[in-house]
Design a protein that fits this description.
About 25% of the residues lie in helices and about 20% in strands. It is α/β, with parallel strands linked by helices. The chain has 3 domains: about 10-260, HUPs (Rossmann fold, 3-Layer(aba) Sandwich); about 270-340 and about 470-560, Ribosomal Protein L25, Chain P, CATH 2.40.240.10; about 350-460, Ribosomal Protein L25, Chain P (Beta Barrel). Strands 10-23-24-25-21-22-11 form a 7-stranded mixed beta sheet. The chain has a 7-stranded mixed beta sheet with strand order 19-16-17-18-12-15-20, with no helix packed on it. α8 (about 240-250) links the parallel β8 and β9 (about 255-260). α2 packs across α11 (about 305-315).
Length: about 550
């Protein structure tokens, strides 16, 4: 066991007790069991970090097991995407990628065993009839008329089901438990259904497929899992999990439930995310506005920030909603340490230094990251013609506007102090160019380098600027709890119309010409950005805004007095 374990929680306390009692021979093995019917999202990351970190802290292992029991919704594309997501998060799954479909034969054998024990039967009721017979929370269910078939008849019918002699939905295999149970999951749950559909791994070998509740615990048992960690919606399923294992008398893992992640301004329902993709509200599962891991990766979220976020929110039993600002805080904290500083102008305004020599190119030294002395420095070209941000100039500036205005001085980052002398306008009265002068002795190391001015602006050299497209991303939903508001309005009505702004005439410093997909930077004074891994190509770079420099989480904490 690791000596520097994180602070304890109820999951770790349960494991500690099992280790103390020798329940599993002082062994800890966990698993992460996604269904390959979509892409993983930030909510899955909480489970991934929990399962893999617990296994590592206790000297155990964690399997990645695909719950591939529904061939009509599962695709190899999702399998590959999930494996890529785990590797990106830093978890080595080599040799531990498993599939429930690997156990189809074993699970079938277990089902036959339960039939022989008289605790499973083949039922002819349709899905609607099964729901009708199940009863309600206040009324007991009714036994199926086929519940008391003989063991021999059930064995024969189940074999015919396997051989494909019945149509889809014609029969099911059900556990014989208690139709009057207060727990609806115990009212003779379905174990197998008939589904004539090709499986992405087993092809047409099977036409009966196990239900999740049947496959889950037995797959855990087969793999030797000791602690089956799942979210609290499965708490009511735990008695069924235990019932199957006890009736089969096989290795019995312990199921422990924790609260799933809920995040403001976000939906984490795979069904709803699929709707956003299919209805064209986003460009795909990896759209940078999506909470999918592939979307967050494309947006520039570092894996370390996601893991830090999951560790910060901890593990609890009770339902709660986490501010998305905390996730963004973790991203800023990580990128502040690692991201090189560069200069980029998103909405360029031309600036001419009239007293600077035409044709002269001066090389200025600029540090790459003040937080990391080992990051070194780079050379910036400085010329007579520059670009600055349109928002950094006002012709009629109010008293508290300290940036550039007629007659006012500012410093250009890494360069000189300049003074605005004139604003050139087009026929419609729009400012299209600034004419300025500079103090040639105000550069770093010069006689007037320490002269104080109230603002420092970023800039790029016009002749050397790299033209780029920059995409400014914001929250996909305006409301803090879009899933709750969806009960009153259509999900599409809750979308933030300003979640994406595309700027096509941005000017960046030339050092960014060699940046590669996924590489992240801090655009000074603007935010953190990364090269888009899908659309950016040589000669036509595309950058995505990861997060702004504004620390909304810190402001929220200050407001709440924390």
């Amino acid at each position: 066991m690791s000596e520097d374990k994180p602070a304890s929680n109820f999951v770790r306390e349960a494991i500690d007790q099992d280790l103390l009692n020798g329940t599993y021979g002082r062994k800890v093995q966990t698993r992460f069991p996604p269904e390959p019917n979509g892409y993983l999202h930030i909510g899955h990351a909480k489970s991934i970090v929990l399962n893999f970190s617990i296994a590592a802290d206790y000297g155990g292992t964690c399997n990645l097991r695909f719950d591939d029991t529904n061939p009509t919704k599962e695709e190899q594309e999702y399998v590959e995407a999930i494996i890529e997501d785990l590797r990106w998060l830093g978890y080595d799954v080599e040799g531990r990628v498993l599939y429930t479909s690997d156990y189809f034969e074993t699970l079938h054998g277990y089902a036959v065993e339960l039939i022989k024990k008289g605790v499973a039967y083949v039922d002819d009721l349709t899905a609607d009839e099964i729901r009708e017979h199940r009863g309600t929370l206040t009324e007991p269910g009714r036994n199926s008329p086929h519940r008391d078939r003989s063991i021999e008849e059930n064995l024969g019918l189940f074999e015919q089901m396997r051989k494909g002699e019945f149509a889809d939905g014609a029969k099911t295999l059900r556990a014989k438990i208690d139709m009057a149970s207060g727990n609806l999951n115990m009212r003779d749950p379905v174990m197998y259904r008939i589904l004539h559909a090709a499986h992405h791994r087993t092809g047409d070998k099977w036409c009966i497929y196990p239900m999740y509740d049947w496959a889950h615990g037995q797959s855990d048992s087969i793999e030797g899992v000791t602690h089956s960690l799942c979210t609290t919606e499965f708490e009511d399923h735990r008695p069924l999990y235990n019932w199957f294992l006890e009736n089969l008398d096989i290795h019995h893992p312990r199921q422990i439930e924790f609260a799933r992640l809920n995040l403001t301004n976000t939906v984490l329902s795979k069904r709803k995310l699929n709707t956003l993709v299919k209805d064209g509200h986003v460009s795909g599962w990896d759209d940078p506005r999506m909470p999918t891991l592939s979307g967050l990766r494309r947006r520039g979220f570092p894996p370390g920030a996601i893991k830090a976020f999951c560790e910060r929110i901890g593990v609890a039993k009770s339902f709660s909603t986490v501010e998305v600002g905390l996730l963004e805080f973790c991203v800023r904290e990580e990128l502040n340490k690692s991201a090189p500083r560069v200069m980029g102008v998103l909405k360029p305004l031309k600036l001419v230094i009239t007293d600077y020599p035409e044709g002269k190119v001066e090389e200025l030294n600029a540090e790459n990251n003040p937080e990391d002395p080992e990051a070194g420095s780079r050379i910036l070209p400085f010329t007579r013609e520059l670009y600055i941000e349109q928002d950094d100039f006002m012709e009629d500036a109010p008293k508290k506007f300290f940036r550039l205005a007629p007659g006012r001085e500012v410093r250009l980052k890494h360069a000189y102090i300049i003074k605005c002398q004139e604003a050139i306008k087009d026929d419609e009265g729009n400012v299209i160019e600034l004419r300025c002068t500079h103090d040639p002795e105000s550069k770093s190391g010069g006689p007037t380098a320490d002269r104080k001015v109230k603002a420092t602006l970023h800039w790029v050299s016009a002749p050397h600027a790299l033209k780029a497209e920059v995409r400014l991303y914001d929250h996909l939903f305006l409301k803090d709890d879009p899933e709750q508001d969806e009960q009153k309005r259509d999900l599409a009505e809750l979308l933030n119309p300003g979640s994406l702004e595309t700027l096509s005439r941005c000017m960046l410093e030339p050092s960014l010409a060699g940046a590669t997909g996924g590489q992240g930077f801090q655009f000074m004074r603007l935010g953190y950005f990364c090269v888009d891994s899908r659309d950016s190509v040589e000669g036509k770079p595309v950058f995505n805004r990861t997060v702004t420099l504004r620390d909304t989480w810190a402001k929220l904490q200050k407001k709440q007095g924390k």
